[in-house]
Structure formats: C-alpha cells, structure tokens
Model the fold of this input.
Amino acid sequence: MHNPRPQAIREAKDIVNRFAIILKIGQTYNADNQAVVKAVDSFVEMVTPVLRNEQSIVIELLGEYFHFNEARIRYTVQYYVNFDFLMEEFRKRGLGSITFNDTISRRDLQDFIRAFLSCPTSDSPFVSLKGAVETIDSINIGALKQAREGEIVDKRHTLRRTYFNAVSHLKTVVGRIKVGAENVDVKKARLVVNSLVDLILEEEQMLISMTAIKDYDEYTYHHSVNVSILSIALGMKLGLNKKKLSELGIAAFLHDVGKVTIPDGILNKPSSFDNNEWEIMRRHPEEGVKKILATMKMDALTIRSAIVAYEHHLNYDGSGYPDVPESHRLDFYSNIVTITDRFDAMTSARVYSRSPKPPEEALHILLQSAGKDVDPTLIKMFIKMIGVFPIGTFVALDTRELGVVYRGNSMHPDRPIIVLVADSQGQKVENTFVDLTDRGLDDRYRRTIKKTLDSNKYDINLSEYLLESYV
Ligand SMILES: [Fe+2]
Ligand SMILES: [Fe+2]
Done:
C-alpha cells in the first residue's frame, strides 16, 4: 500500500487541478501553442519534486472521486469546476487512471495532450487512447473501474441519511419556534446545513436529485430542505465560500418559518383561498421575521435569515409582498432564494396547487419573468445548474421507451443518463440505466429524448427510481 506524505496530499488537489487546466487549454489551442506550453511547464515544475519523493504519481478516478496515490481527494469549491470537467473527460474515454513515472518532460505531456484530445469518445475510446499513449515512456494509463458496489451503497446511504436528517431536524426547530421557545439553538441547524454543504461539494448532482423527491404530507419540511439544498448549490456555482454557503443554507432553511402562525385549516385547505385567507397567507414573511428575531440569538446570521424570510415573496423589481418602497433592492441571498423557492414550489404537489409543473416548464416560466420577478443573471445560472432536462424529468425516448432523468451531463446537456421506467412495449423495467451519449455501430445515438412527459399523469413514483444506484 502506497503511503503518500502529507505534503504530497496537500499538493494533490493543485496537481489534479493544474492537469485539468492543461487539457482545457489544449482543447482550445493545439499542443504546441505558447499557452499550452506555459501550462505544461508549470505542471512539470509542480510535479517534479513530488515525483522525486514518490517515484510515481497515480491520478485515479474511482466513482465520484479522484484519488492521488490512493488517497482520496476531497472536493473544494475553488476547484470544483475543473474537477467536474476532468471527471467528464475521463468518463468519456473510459479512462480510469493516469500514472506519471520517473521524470516527466514537456514533450511527453504535449504528446499525451495530443493523444488524449484526438482520441474518439465513442466505440471503445479507451483502447485507442491506450494505443496512442503506449509510445510515451513516462505516462501509463488504466481503464475506468466500476466503483465498488459497497461504495455506491455507502454513498446512497449517506445521501439519504443527510437529507432525511435535515428534514427531521427542521421539524424539531420549527416545532420549538412554533411554541415560542426562546433562544432556539441554531447550532444544530448549522451542523445539519454544514453537512448539506459538504455533500453538495462532493455529490452535487446526487444531492440535487434528492430535491426531486417531494413529500405531499410533509410538504413544508421537504420544501424548506430542498430550497436550502438548491440555494447552496447555486451559491456554490457563484463561488461563495463555505462559510457563506452555510449562512445562505440556514437562511433558506428558515425562509418559510412564518408559516407556523398559519392555522392548519388554511395551510391544508384543498380549495382556493378567500380574500381573508389570502391575507393571512401573505403575512407569513413578516411573521417569519418576528419568529426568527424572537427565538434566535441576535447575530449577523439571524438578521440575514430574517431579511430572507421577509423578502422571499418579493420580486426582483420590488413588486410582490409585503409592500416595500419602489427603491427597495433585494438582498443577494433573497435573490437566490426567490428562485429556488419558486422552482421547488412549482414542481411540488401541494394541497392548494394540485398539479405540480414538470421541472423544465417551471424553469421556462422563471426564465420568462427574468428581470421582472427574478434576477436575470441568477436565473440563467440556475437553469444551467439544473440542466436542460432537470433530474427527475420524465421523458419519452425515440425508441418508445420511457424513463426518468437520473444524472445530467454538463458537456451534453441534452444527453443525460436515464433510468428506464418502461420498455418499448410499455412493460415496466427495473434498475436499467442508459447513457444518451452512447452510440451504436452506425455511429448514431442509440437513444434521444423525444419529449418530456408529466410524471404526475403517469403515476410515477420518482423517489423509487431516483434512489436506485447507478454503477
Ligand atoms: Fe413562503
Ligand atoms: Fe417557500
């Protein structure tokens, strides 16, 4: 077993990040271009002392993580985009590991970039890449290994536990706020939200996919946790640091806390509200402020949470409720929460809105109101994050099969991974995942999304499919 020194582990992230940068630049310029040479040289400079100590460096992709000489590399916000890119590039080529031996030269790396970028990404890409890399002495590659079943199960387990722990904790906090307890301790809420932040940094797509699970009976709690997750994920895309992500997550977590003052009879009313009932509903932002200020200890986080609770039904242009002066500008966190809150609300089944909208329709509605109801830049980033076909979208394929979008593909937003629900004969299918970037022998895509369908009309239990494992 290889035991990397702590120093090397610290450098591992930088090395993997720098490697991703070389490939990114190599995609734009050719391998002899000055920009590429510069990036290659700085990479060589970085790895040379490490190679001297370690003899070799193995960068391996196992499941969702890169490993550096067998030590798992944790994701960081800073490197997230490059790691994500590198992972996609590895997967597309069936590439699992790259080993740098002895001394590495600029030439070797340039040769590798050429081989890597010219290798086709369909029809046994790994075999052709392996052939091309064979001539480079200091670099070896290995095929992508399937993640061990145990790891996948563990990961699923952690995801589920974290998500449902957040839901159940929120219930406790809200319960205490409801009975008017003083000094409600948000320390635990911080811990819970921090666990969400950590998971999003590592398993963004999978945790976002959990938000597609809507619980009709526990709507408010699931909704608040979903809004928190989606807000943290959007905050991450905006480059917020961990402390800010945690603040944003808590503010989002508590945005609807004022609803504790609304009688259940109104909250769960199956028919539409009369004027008086609307009046009561519309008071929940102000009630939220009161509850937060009365029950939490006074600090910057409490004030920020109160602001978000107050502003979350306001629009970007200051319309909406409660009434604010025309010059009022929404807090940055509120601008995020107004998007994630509306998206989750529109896509959820609620008592007073019986038919939830399919995710892509909700995104379309939000985009149309950009600049008026929601921040125009943030909504674009949100749509990019959720994808053209958001996770949980129920789709019909050109093969007449039906499926649910399981995982997005940032390089091919229209070609996500699908978990099949029914075959071309309409027979139920279980545990079958298909990648829409797969091509047949004729080089054509095997499957393409033909249209999206409303899962509510088909009585599809999304959670049943989304919690399946994908190996
Ligand atoms: Fe609300
Ligand atoms: Fe809400």
Summary: The first strand starts at residue 56 and ends at 62. The chain has three domains: 6-143, 149-386, 394-466. Residues 394-466 form one domain.
